[in-house]
Specification:
Elements: H1 2-57, H2 59-70, H3 81-97, H4 101-134, H5 143-173, H6 185-196, H7 205-233, E1 239-240, E2 243-244, H8 246-276, H9 301-312, H10 321-346
Antiparallel strand pairs: 1-2
Helix pairs in contact: 1-4, 1-10, 2-3, 2-10, 4-5, 5-6, 5-7, 7-8, 8-9, 8-10
GO cellular component, one term: mitochondrial inner membrane
InterPro entries: MCP (IPR002067), MCP_dom_sf (IPR023395), MCP_transmembrane (IPR018108)
Keywords: Membrane, Mitochondrion, Mitochondrion inner membrane, Repeat, Transmembrane, Transmembrane helix, Transport
Length: about 350
């Protein structure tokens, strides 16, 4: 009897232990998805904040860049960065420097959120495939693989928010003297959709796709590769215990932004000009051919390149590069550093480099 009682007791204990284990696993099963969702939300918030902070800081230079890109060469208003900013201040006041920034932030917040999150996911997927292909579970992403992950992230983010970028360009270009004015983001979207059709919202999308590959790809690849190199080599004592100072990370972001925008800038000019096609009232600011003040019509990306170079020379592909270069240094730097700082504040353990 005693033996049977012992066996019965052991059986009962075993059942209790099994039930406890099942409950624990069930609890973890419930907790894991909620934790994953929370982590995703935190990552998206960090990316959105990074985009808003970085873009607002350089809004005047962003507007001037677009005005330089599309101004009529036979009616020059903006001759350079300093003169251009002074002209905007004199003719439109302080608010003129930030015209279009609300639209820009409305676009850049989701764009930045999706871009950083997409990069993290693309990096994980590419790293998994790379480790599986090489058979080395300790393999790390190479600069080329980071370029690929950044390109994927840029394409996804740009495609998701492209209509906002299109109307942002038009809102930024219009002035107090424009014959026709869009009243805001939604008015611009509805007007373009009604008068020019849904395809107009994605005009210039193809050169944007091509341009985003080197731009965003190089941004992420250069930034992360520089960080990894500095952490491993520790030149001049810049890295301590696998950590870089905010100043060093800002410098890495500045280098990444400079490389990326220099390579991709001509495509950005073509994209912006193609976005203005169909807006007849933009003739005072969009390029004309000298004989006719109406804006040139482009039949595609190649045609836009050809006509721009033929009428204005190769240098036209780099119009607005100076203010763009000036803004890229703080913009990209602030975006990367703000993203990582906000994730630290929100308690997200994984950074983009991890």
């Amino acid at each position: 009897m005693a033996s049977e009682d012992v066996k019965t007791s052991e059986s009962a204990v075993s059942k209790i232990v099994n039930l406890a284990e099942e409950a624990k696993l069930a609890g973890e099963g419930v907790k894991a998805p909620s934790y994953a969702v929370l982590s995703i939300c935190k990552s998206l918030v960090a990316g959105g904040v990074a985009g808003a902070v970085s873009r607002t800081a350089v809004a005047p230079l962003e507007r001037l860049k677009i005005l330089l890109q599309v101004q009529n060469p036979h009616s020059i208003k903006y001759n350079g960065t300093i003169q251009g900013l002074k002209y905007i201040w004199r003719t439109e006041g302080f608010r003129g420097l930030f015209k279009g920034n609300g639209t820009n932030c409305a676009r850049i917040v989701p764009n930045s959120a999706v871009k950083f999150f997409s990069y993290e996911q693309a990096s994980k997927g590419i790293l998994y495939l790379y480790q599986h292909h090489t058979g080395n579970e300790d393999a790390e992403l190479t600069p080329l693989l980071r370029l690929g992950a950044g390109a994927c992230a840029g394409i996804i983010a740009m495609s998701a928010t492209y209509p906002m970028d299109m109307v942002r360009g038009r809102l930024t270009v219009q002035t107090e003297k424009s014959p026709y004015r869009y009243r805001g983001i939604f008015h611009a979207l509805s007007t373009v959709l009604r008068e020019e059709g849904p395809r107009a919202l994605y005009r210039g999308w193809f050169p944007s796709v091509i341009g985003v590959v080197p731009y965003v790809g190089l941004n992420f690849a250069v930034y992360e590769s520089l960080k990894v190199w500095l952490i491993k080599t520790k030149p001049l004592g810049l890295a301590e215990d696998s950590e870089l100072s905010v100043t060093t990370r800002l410098a890495c972001g500045a280098a990444a932004g400079t490389v990326g925008q220099t390579v991709a800038y001509p495509l950005d000019v073509i994209r912006r000009r193609m976005q203005m096609v169909g807006w007849k009232e933009a003739s005072s600011v969009v390029i004309g051919d000298g004989r006719n003040r109406a804006p040139l019509e482009y039949n595609g990306m190649i045609d836009a390149f050809r006509k721009t170079v033929r009428h204005e020379g190769f240098g036209a592909l780099y119009k607005g590069l100076v203010p763009n270069s000036v803004k890229v240094v703080p913009s990209i730097s602030l975006a990367f550093v703000t993203y990582e700082v906000v994730k630290d504040i929100l308690g997200v353990e994984i950074r983009i480099s991890d």
